[in-house]
Amino acid sequence: MKITDFSQPIRQSSKGIIIIFAFNAFKFFKRFFVLFIAFGLSLSKKKSFANLTLTNLILICVGILVVLLIIAVLKYLNFKFHLSKDDFHLSTGIFNKDNTIIPKSKIQNVYIKQNFLQQIINVVSLNIETAGDTKSEIQISALDKPTALRLKSELFQKAKQIDVQTEVTEAENVFFRVSIKRLLLEGISQNHLRSFAIIASFVFGLYYEFKDYVEELRLRERLEDIVHLDQESVLNIILLNLVGILAAVIISLLFSVIKTVITNFNLEVIENQKTIEINKGLINKVSLSLTPSRIQNIVIKTNRVKRYFGLHTLFVKQAMVNAKQRKNFVIIALEQQQVKHLVNKLLVNYSGKSEAFKPKPYYKRIMALRAVITVGLLTVLGVLIFGRNFWWITGLLLILSVLYVWIGYKKAYYKIDEDYVSIGGGVIDTTTNILEINKIQAVKLRQTIFQKRHKIASVFIATASKTVKIPYILENDAKSIANFLLFKVESQHRDWM
Questions:
Q1: Computed from CA positions of residues 479, 485, 490, 491, in that sequence, does the dihedral angle turn out positive or negative?
Q2: Which of 175, 270, 337, 470 is deepest in the core (most CB within 10 A)?
Q3: How far, rounded to the nearest angstrom, does the alpha carbon of residue 237 sit from its chain's CA centroid?
Q4: Quick one: 410 exposed, middle or buried, by C-beta within 10 A (0-12, 13-18, 19+)?
């Protein structure tokens, strides 16, 4: 097999032209998707739109595709990269040429992705992120996988001389590989409220975009003819609402299962000597490495249903990872012992056995106030939309609010030892946040004028990846915690990544 010499400027695979063209075409048609649908609906009713015939519109689309192809070719020809002893060099541009130099020591993440088109033409993309930006700074769209893996390895060598003829290998151990059964159970036990919210927002968005066209179909009148809805019958209204709720639950369940399977298909966790590698995905395959020194927070989640099936989820938070990529730093369907093993691998000397403390009962008052406000707003909106028959749902919401306050307070706790802060909470899910003290970036106390009278405050602890909160504890305890954490950070003199 030919070994690529990264010391000389090289281009990506010529298949990159296809990838760049497809990506630009997708972005263009996504941006003007609604406009194209409007054209289609108008042409279905008449032979032209704004004096443009179907033939004219097709020619315009072909012209746009030709321009996008030319841009893709120029981008490919001007995209060159190489490695020096300490740096990654990249040259890009069409008319304006840019030269980017990234020191290897500043590279935060290097991960490999493969979308559906890349799987077809057998190439992968390699993304490079640094700690200075929340977006992927560099994306090489088309490399064969062996070349991508070798480039990834050399980017993390940090000023070490490498023999390019030596095959880079590391002892690997497949620690965990998910089964289809556990994937399905994971999808079934998801928080389906989130799935319902995504579906509802999508449906309402489409409805308002094509409201006039939907009204022409007279769907409401046809539905009333089918179910013979009697406006005076409370029973019929309740039954119709229950059918709607059942349909929403089933659709949300299917959405959660399908999304879970597609995102985490073939999930495997490979344990190396110093790192952990995650590979997963069906349509979009990803391969990324977790290095303990770069991890800022770890979050463990489960819920009552997941615990019954023995399922736990591990979220790993790293600095400056872009929002789209964060969802890939997740390992699902783990058993409890597997979670403990990975946490011990990623967090040195973490035990989690220190004494647990709870927020003050003032926390329950705050949660109750939020619940009452939420129920009040939902009741007003429900009565305005559905009429007085919505009042029976208000009683159910009040019962759920009581459970929300009771469960939320029961699960809330915090632990602090010499090296780690652990914060627990959640209502539907049980969440545990773990962060290493030496990686704390800032500590802030916050209290309202009402909390000041009760000598209550909250502690906000920020790392480079997220901010966690110790809610509603005594003001003196909050000050002691803040002073202790700041002292530990300043006295340890350890790097935060």
A1: positive
A2: 470
A3: 38
A4: exposed
Count of other CB atoms within 10 angstroms of residue 93: 12
Which residues lie closer than 8 Å to 253 by C-beta, 6 or more apart? 187, 188, 192, 195
The Cα–Cα gap between 100 and 491 comes to 37
**Amino acid at position 474, single letter:** L
Domains and CATH numbers, the chain: 16-167 (2.30.29), 170-341 (no CATH), 362-409 (no CATH)
* Structure-block tokens of residue 459: 């502690």
Please, which residues have CB within 8 angstroms of residue 321's CB and are 6 or more apart in sequence?
108, 109, 129, 134, 329, 465
Where would I find the H helices in 47-115? 54-78
Angstrom distance (rounded) from CA 355 to CA 352: 9
- State the Cα–Cα distance between residues 317 and 321, nearest whole angstrom: 8
* pTM of the predicted protein model: 0.80
**DSSP β-ladder status, 98-103 and 87-92:** antiparallel
In degrees and rounded to multiples of 5, residue 295 shows phi and psi of: -80, 130
412: left (phi over 0), alpha (psi -120 to 50) or beta: beta
